[in-house]
Design a protein that fits this description.
single chain; Rossmann fold; alpha/beta; globular; nine-stranded mixed beta sheet
Length: 394
């Protein structure tokens, strides 16, 4: 028998033993989800310059519109790319119907993404299917996503479509990190339009005591066990008393139970200790800062001149209206819009944090307005933040 065959058999045996002895049955269900859109993003991959292989889902348009730039949908912390597709009538579907190429990444530490090399393979194929901690788990922060993941995603899209520039739609941290990118990157011109949904870089009131305690508690648990994967069985049933935790994510009366079940089974991930540590000052002192503490991203919002749409929910606890307004007012863009979603604005419900994407009403109250805003800016001439000589770029 060839050594390579023996190695594969040993690897398979090791995997099976871990599955048996760590009770990971629920952890692997997402790889076998009946709907491919509920599985990790594995259609395409890109490699970052610091050695992470990121999985990407590519939702192709029904009929391609060459005048429209690709759209990136970026999930938040502790989630993966299925965040955008676990509802039955989702935003990627509506964007594709309008002629957009849609790219949904699994950011580092989530979904199918893993470090290049044997440790990363063991993490992704074996340990991530269990409740055990991954090798090197938590050794990355939000700035790593800003400095390495975002450029790799943009370069991948350019290779696939020929477009150097994209529309970036980020939810929660998926939008927060884009503020940091636009403030610090020499290639900020590659973001033609930016939609931030439930994304703020400042807290109107601080410290956020409850969230700060939760942040530190999760960091402590992540030294022992995978907090994301131990929760996956809750797609089949949940103990009582978790309502206050649920409320941080979504409003029960605004989100279908099926979506909540899929969230626990397919979307929830480990946040990463390094990322949680970077967010600690945001919750304690009120502003989002770099991991080394040298850059306050709220103080530098004036550097952001990209066309901006901010989406805020009246029922959002994590990114409340007052904090959203502070972030919005700090941006220097001459083309910026803030939209609130709640009963005070004539909507059916007060939208919570994930309700902005998951609500049963979002497909008719929110998504069409996001798409209308994007459509009006396709194709977009370079903003004031564009690099010299970019007029001729796609």
């Amino acid at each position: 028998m060839q050594p390579a065959v023996i190695s594969r058999l040993a690897f398979t045996a090791f995997t099976l033993l871990l599955v048996v002895f760590t009770g990971s049955g629920c952890a692997i269900t997402r790889h076998m989800a009946p709907n491919p859109l509920h599985r990790p993003c594995t259609e395409e991959y890109t490699v970052t310059d610091d050695g992470w292989r990121l999985g990407i889902r590519h939702v192709r348009p029904d009929v391609e519109d060459p005048t429209k730039l690709p759209v990136v949908l970026c999930h938040g912390l502790g989630l993966n790319g299925t965040f955008w597709t676990i509802t039955d009538h989702h935003l990627p579907q509506q964007l594709a119907a309008q002629g957009y190429h849609v790219f949904i990444p699994d950011m580092r530490g989530s979904g199918a993404s893993h470090r290049v090399g044997m440790k990363g393979i063991i993490n992704q194929r074996v340990l991530r299917q269990t409740t055990m901690l991954e090798i090197g788990d938590g050794g990355w922060c939000v700035d790593d996503e800003v400095n390495h993941d975002v450029p790799a995603i943009l370069n991948h899209i350019q290779r696939e479509t020929g477009h150097e520039r994209v529309n970036w739609v980020g939810h929660s941290l998926g939008g927060m990190l884009m503020f940091a990118y636009l403030e610090t990157s020499p290639e900020a011109w590659r973001i033609a339009n930016f939609v931030g949904m439930g994304s703020t870089v400042v807290q109107a009131e601080w410290p956020q005591t409850k969230m700060l305690k939760a942040n530190r508690a999760i960091r402590g648990l992540l030294r022992i066990v995978s907090t994301g994967r131990i929760a996956r069985p809750m797609m089949f049933g949940r103990p009582p008393g978790l309502e206050s935790i649920d409320r941080l994510y979504y409003t029960a009366s605004n989100v279908d139970r099926t979506t909540v079940n899929r969230f626990y089974g397919y979307t929830l991930e480990n946040p990463g200790r390094g990322a949680l540590k970077q967010l600690d000052p945001y919750l304690e002192y009120g502003t989002f800062v770099s991991s080394d503490g040298k850059t306050d991203y709220y103080d530098h919002l004036g550097r952001v001149s990209t066309p901006l749409l901010m989406i805020a929910g009246d029922g959002d606890i994590m990114s409340d209206i007052a904090s959203t307004e502070l972030s919005f007012n700090g941006v220097s863009s001459q083309d910026k819009t803030l939209k609130r979603y709640g009963r005070s604005q004539g909507h059916i419900h007060d939208y919570g944090h994930c309700d902005l994407v998951w609500s049963r009403y979002a497909p008719r109250e929110i998504f069409p307005e996001v798409i209308q805003w994007l459509n009006a800016r396709q194709p977009k001439l370079p903003s004031a933040q564009s690099a010299p000589g970019q007029i001729g770029h796609h």
